[in-house]
Specification:
The chain has a single domain (about 10-140), classed as N-utilizing Substance Protein B Homolog, Chain A, CATH 1.10.940.10. The chain contains seven helices and no strands. The protein is mainly α and about 140 residues long. It is globular.
């Protein structure tokens, strides 16, 4: 029996992944994400999608509130700094989408969890799902 064909990522999923790359790079360098974004836009290889720009700019503009929402949703003994960089930045993207966009909460969580399954540790998807469900619950 042949293997099922790989599912192609949507344009918005690709934009989220690119936003993650840019936020991760800025986090790793401990620098503002906006100049990192600008450098990627200028390089234009591959082109930076408008949704990627919206996500990076949105996360940057609302970072303190986003980080507070995530920190308040972590289990005892966990801190934002203890989270793996990939997970932290996926949580930031999803928290931004949950609080500041028209994207449904379910889609924001599912997209983040799916990217965690692809890009992070074996436990990351479950961990991120729990944190983001708590963020959603706190939003009311």
């Amino acid at each position: 029996m042949a293997a099922a064909p790989a599912k192609r990522a949507s344009a918005r999923t690709k934009a989220r992944k690119r936003a993650l790359d840019i936020l991760f790079e800025a986090d790793l360098r401990q620098t503002d994400p906006l100049p990192v974004l600008a450098a990627h836009v200028e390089l234009d290889e591959p082109p930076v999608r408008p949704f990627t720009v919206e996500l990076v700019e949105g996360v940057t503009a609302h970072l303190s509130g986003i980080d507070q929402a995530i920190a308040e949703s972590l289990a005892a003994g966990w801190t934002l700094e203890r989270m793996p960089r990939v997970d932290r930045n996926l949580a930031r993207i999803a928290a931004y989408e949950i609080a500041h966009t028209e994207v449904s909460r379910e889609v924001a969580v599912a997209e983040s969890v799916s990217l965690a399954q692809e890009l992070s540790t074996d436990d990351s998807a479950t961990f991120l799902n729990g944190v983001l469900r708590a963020v959603v619950a706190r939003q009311g």
